[in-house]
Design brief:
about 5% strand
Length: about 350
């Protein structure tokens, strides 16, 4: 049971981690190439990340201890699986369906069917690319196995089988063909340049991108400094010092400050194609208020502790969350305080173009 559960757990855990790390660029690419972000498309990409890890976990895990490894054979004869199937009892349908060699072939095909499906649905590529991708992915896995994970082990601990290459590639081809059945459903999408409404989901996606940019950048700075110090010192990772933490805070803080003061929107809002218009206060005053009652306020209150800072942060987050749902076009607290209206970037571009044409 553990031979099945452990690879699945690792695939889901690491796949979700990769999805979190890639979420910000994924949002940016989706809004520019597809015009927006849908729940279904997001789930497909999450499934693709988990599936990519599952390919590795189910073909490489569990990894045996070095002192318990048993060198595996190499199978270089094409279509050897036919002889393997015939070597068992095949006198009935039941015997054929329970034939270990048949099950092995079927699993090798099924394992790569999602790859061909993802190649067409996500990358928009056809059978040729799916075939080459399936062959390349399978070859990478097989050579990783035959080299003992590229030299970590003295020999291969799983069988290198040329039939696996063939069946995995066939699975990718079948997945690409199967994806044609669902391809027509994508024809109903809006044009990329068509303006779209500012929804709660869109606003929350921009907010989530802002938070991820802040947290992941700070984490990356700490990791880079920690690894660099470990390499130059005794090889042990240490807790980042206050200067490293300050650098991890200042850089995203400065980037957000520049974005709000120059464009009136945060980086996350720019990723989801939201534009801002100052309608009540002077631009400099309004954008400063927008920063302080938005991402800038969150970052400042969470970084420096002073009396009532925790309470102020809680109130800022709570009021902001409520106003995102209750204000016009889901502007939120920062826009209300600063007198800012928000709109789709493409709507404003179309308005400017119409005025020029007129």
């Amino acid at each position: 049971m553990s031979s099945f559960v452990i690879p699945a757990f690792v695939a889901v855990l690491v796949g979700c981690g990769i999805a979190v790390l890639a979420f910000v660029p994924f949002v940016a690419i989706s809004y520019r190439r597809r015009g927006g972000l849908t729940f279904g498309h997001t789930l497909v990409w999450l499934a693709a990340a988990i599936y990519a890890m599952a390919l590795w976990t189910y073909t490489l895990l569990p990894v045996p201890p070095a002192d318990e490894i048993t060198c595996a054979a190499v199978q270089l004869r094409p279509f050897q699986f036919i002889a393997d199937i015939l070597s068992f009892n095949t006198g009935s349908v039941r015997a054929l369906m329970t034939n270990p060699a048949v099950l092995q072939v079927a699993l090798n095909v099924i394992l790569f069917v999602p790859l061909g499906w993802f190649v067409r649905q996500l990358a928009g590529r056809g059978i040729i690319v799916a075939t080459m991708t399936g062959l390349a992915a399978s070859a990478l896995i097989e050579f990783t196995q035959i080299t003992g994970i590229w030299g970590i082990y003295s020999c291969a601990y799983r069988v290198f089988d040329v039939d696996d290459l063939m069946m995995n590639t066939l699975g990718a081809v079948l997945g690409s063909l199967a994806s044609l059945l669902l391809l027509r459903r994508r024809e109903g999408l809006q044009e990329v340049d068509a303006p779209r409404p500012i929804t709660v989901t869109r606003r929350l996606t921009g907010i989530l991108c802002d938070l991820l940019i802040w947290v992941l950048f700070s984490w990356t700075v700490s990791l880079v400094f920690g690894v660099t110090a470990a390499v130059l010192d005794d090889g042990a990772l240490t807790e980042p010092g206050p200067i490293v933490a300050l650098i991890g805070f200042i850089l995203p803080f400065a980037a957000q400050l520049f974005s709000v003061l120059s464009r009136g929107v945060t980086i996350g809002e720019r990723l989801v194609l939201i534009a801002a218009v100052q309608v009540r206060h002077p631009v400099a005053v309004g954008r400063t208020l927008r920063f302080l009652f938005g991402i800038g306020g969150y970052m400042l209150l969470s970084q420096w502790a002073f009396p009532l800072s925790g309470l102020l942060l809680f109130l800022l987050v709570a009021v902001s969350a409520v106003t995102v749902f209750t204000t016009r076009r889901h502007r939120g607290l920062a826009c209300v305080v600063s007198g800012t209206e928000i709109d789709d970037v493409r709507a404003r571009t179309a308005t400017v173009q119409d005025s020029l044409d007129g």
